[in-house]
Amino acid sequence: TQPEALPFYTSRTMGDMLEEYAKSLPIEKTLTVFCGHTHDKAKHQVTRNLTVYCSSAEYGCPTISEMVNVL
């Protein structure tokens, strides 16, 4: 997604909240966010311990973009 389109696909309030929370965690703790989808696949390292993944989408072609292991 182009930067000028971000206000239509993101929540600044949620982003600010997640960033503030991540900064309050001890350094050994990490926060990983998997959000819905947009036109382009993206990975953004917001802080040292906050990573956001967003999948891409194509109409009529659902896909699995990542596998998550839960311990």
Based on Cα principal axes, name the global outline.
flat
Beta-sheet strand percentage?
A: 25-35%
Name the strands of the widest sheet in spatial order.
1-3-2
Radius of gyration: 14 Å
Number of helices: 1
Class from helix and strand fractions: alpha+beta
Helix percent reads: 10-25%
The strand count comes to 3
Largest sheet: 3 strands, mixed
Distance between the termini: 32 Å
Low-confidence spans: none
Average pLDDT confidence is 83
Q: What's the SSE pattern?
A: HEEE
Folded structure, characterized:
- The chain is α+β, with helices and mostly antiparallel strands and 71 residues long.
- The chain is 18% helix and 30% strand.
- It is built from 1 helix and 3 strands, in the order αβββ.
- The protein has one helix spanning 12-24; strands spanning 31-38, 42-47, 50-56.
- A 3-stranded mixed β-sheet has the order 1-3-2, with helices on one face.
- The model has no long low-confidence stretch (mean pLDDT 83).
